[in-house]
Amino acid sequence: MESMIGKVLGIALRCPDKREMHEVSEARCVAQAGIEGDPASRPDRGMTLISAQQWRQATAELGVDLPWWTRRANVLIDTGPLGPFIGRTIRLGEIELEVCDETRPCDLMDKLSPGLRAALKPEQRGGVHGRIVRGGVLRIGDEVRLIGE
Fold this sequence. Notes:
The chain is mostly beta strands. The chain has a single domain, classed as M1 Pyruvate Kinase, Domain 3 (Beta Barrel), CATH 2.40.33. It has helices at residues 52-62, 108-112, 116-120, and strands at 2-14, 21-24, 26-30, 34-35, 47-51, 75-77, 89-92, 95-102, 128-134, 136-139, 143-147. The strands form 2 sheets. It has a 7-stranded mixed barrel with strand order 1-6-5-9-8-7-11. The longest helix has 11 residues, at 52-62. It is globular and about 40 Å long.
């Protein structure tokens, strides 16, 4: 049994220098490997996710308007907090992702916008990361479902 928890609103990949991000409409995800074309993607951390709701909360607290990929996450999901999905498996369109842990914000966040790191700490607002257990093509608009509900 599965329950819908949201939709994919955005997809972003790191450029080869790993500094810049660029948005794409779809991305090929490989099981036990990562996202093709993202040099920071690796088997144990194949994909990073961030909640659109939590991103809006964090930036509103700071009074700034920043693009979601400033967080350097791969996928923006139209959903609430992602922390409750740690240890669970979710389906994003064709992809299955085992959500492994919180993506903890680093010092780079404050370089991009002072106070951003602290604003992302509560309730796993910095997002989560996981291991791709079933690959496929991820697309904007794909439904996100919790498996086993």
